[in-house]
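Progress against Task 2.4 (sequence-to-structure conversion) is shown through the following example record, which the project officer requested during the mid-term review.
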Amino acid sequence: MITYYDDRSVQVTSTAVRVDGRSYPLAELTTVWHRRGDRSWRVLAGRGAIGAALAGPLVAAVLGIALAVWLQRSAVVTIAIVGVSVLLGLAVGPLADFLFEHLDRSYARGSREMEMWAQWRGRPVRLLHTRDAMRFGQVYRAVQRAMEALPSAPGRAAPDGAARQPDRAARQNVIGSSGSRPSPRNRP
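Structure tokens generated for the chain above:
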């Protein structure tokens, strides 16, 4: 048995997909597709807040320099205001690394709910529901690889090396080349 993906709630092997204690044998899955939900405004607002936090000290530094020039005070006061503004602008450096890391993680997690569905024993079942885009992609690709490796997968060579015609069951055991397929509920 080959394990394609394994975490605390999902395991994809060469024989089955196990999700939250439920097991779905690959031989019984006929079609697998995914659906994307609406964007999460909370995630997008968080990304905007990170962008504002990155730009805030730089804007304050530029405004401080402009204020120092506009006030036309003595050279000592102008240099002090410009110095404080530049220090404030430089303060964003160590903070920027931290904020960029959070921004990068936000994009890796994604801003949409993702669902993986499969046709199992003639009915659609939701295999996975998550907002973590990276994890979803890993699980989806693992299911795709597992289904492609099934002995009944279309285009597989027969044990004697000669090509065989895929039978009806083999043609049904597919996952779309792009990975997406409309949900049965969305069909006209």
